[in-house]
Write a structure and sequence with these properties.
With 191 residues, the protein is of the alpha+beta class. The protein has five helices and seven strands, in the order ααββααββββαβ. It has a single domain (24-36, 64-187), classed as endopeptidase domain like (from Nostoc punctiforme) (endopeptidase fold (from Nostoc punctiforme)), CATH 3.90.1720. It has helices at residues 24-40, 66-78, 97-109, 117-121, 177-182, and strands at 89-90, 94-95, 138-143, 146-155, 158-161, 170-173, 183-187. The protein has a five-stranded antiparallel sheet with strand order 6-5-4-3-7. The protein has a two-stranded antiparallel sheet with strand order 1-2. The chain is globular. The protein starts with 23 loop residues before the first helix and ends with a strand. 37% of the residues are buried.
Length: 191
Amino acid sequence: MMTTVRKVPHYPAPSPAVPVPARPWAALALAALLAGGLLAGCSSAPPVRPGPEATQHWPQVTPGDPASANAVTLRALSLVGTPYRYGGNTPESGFDCSGLVNYVYRDMLDLKLPRTSRELAALQGPRLQPQRLASGDLVFFGSAGNVSHVGIYVGEGRFVHAPSSGGTVRLDRLDGPYWRDHYTGARRVLR
């Protein structure tokens, strides 16, 4: 007799404050808008209107390696809408949270990272405060001192991640109600 195990999502549904493009070309257009501030500087970027959940000011922190950070950011944004799949690590098979992070860094920078969110959290030095985040940083979430989720920070308080079964890779805000309460820190992979 076979028993089916049903995995229950443990992350919230998409926030209405952050639009998620339904088409790959829309993700690229969104990526171009967000990266405009990274590539051309703050003064030439169009103003971004925060959603109702945007309550925090997000300073623009220049990454140590802007070219690599741009590559990671654009690739992560291009994957918005890819289906979630537990253990997934390619666009064809879908992604879980750490599979997405591993794929983006390997694809763009030929950098192999640890596979799980806990191993990724232990990878680099001390916890980064949200005000010190630069695009390309890894952001971690969990509770009771345990890391259970990871995403890629893309600037302006936003991160790309693969949150739950039945969902897709999406763009969310760090100051959204669920994410701000479960933020455990960040790690800078790019130096």
